[in-house]
Design brief:
By secondary structure, the protein is an alpha+beta fold. Helix content is 42%, strand content 13%. It has 2 domains: 45 residues, no CATH class; 41 residues, no CATH class. It contains 3 helices and 2 strands, in the order βαβαα. Strands 1-2 form a two-stranded parallel sheet. β1, α1 and β2 form a beta-alpha-beta unit. The chain starts with 6 loop residues before the first strand and ends in a 12-residue tail after the last helix. The relative contact order is 0.14.
Length: 89
């Protein structure tokens, strides 16, 4: 990672209200407090950022696999997944 350039983080603005956005940004900044890199957080409509569109379809595919048992789209991306972490609440 090039420490001279900021890490760019994009967040879809569609489903986030102002309070939620503020909490999310604070949480992200908190995670990177100890990191030795700068971050730049961008809140954009997903239609304007291809990276958000790709992230959306990937996360939707994983959701469908684990929540609905539908592996149609997951099978397309599974060879590209390098690590899996499972979290429980």
């Amino acid at each position: 990672m090039d420490l001279d350039k900021p890490l760019l983080i994009f967040i879809d603005q569609k489903d986030t209200n102002k309070k939620m956005r503020g909490e999310l940004i604070a949480s992200i900044r908190n995670v990177f407090d100890d990191a030795r890199c700068q971050i730049e957080i961008n809140i954009k409509p997903s239609q304007s950022e291809k990276c958000l569109q790709a992230t959306d379809i990937i996360s939707w595919s994983i959701f469908r696999k684990y929540e609905r048992g539908d592996t149609v789209c997951y099978r397309i991306i599974k060879s590209r997944i390098s690590r899996k972490y499972f979290y429980t609440l």
